[in-house]
Amino acid sequence: MTNPRRAGWVALALTMVAGFEGLRQAAYLDPVGIPTICFGETKGVRLGQRATPAQCEAMLADSLAIANRAVDACIRAPLGDYRRAALVSFAYNVGQANLCSSTLARKMNAGDTVGACNELPRWNRAKGIVLPGLTRRRATEQAMCLGALP
Fold this sequence. Notes:
Elements lengths: L3 H18 L2 E6 L5 E4 L14 H22 L6 H14 L1 H5 L2 H7 L3 H5 L7 E2 L2 E2 L1 H15 L4
């Protein structure tokens, strides 16, 4: 049986990541030239590849589980559903190594929740290029992390 507490952050993270990434069933080059498919999947993707909505949903579920494990590995502070969903979305996008080595993780683990959440907007670049979509995503993650969103 699914833990109801876990179900809350999963639904939030699914909605947030799917909304920001969007569904693209045919592989494409993202804004910095990385082959991408479905809801922002990049691992093993090659141009010309196609996926069904069901395949994309399965990839997203698997990748969110990986991102959640990254949050568990990097963050020792207790996390409510909204804060966990924000950090899972962040980890999904930047990866475990970047999360674990970030000032965000250091501050969160030191008990500086506000300082940690306020680190999110700094992660709005890909290959040094500020991306408006990442800027919007980080603002939403920051608001959820700070508890400013319901």
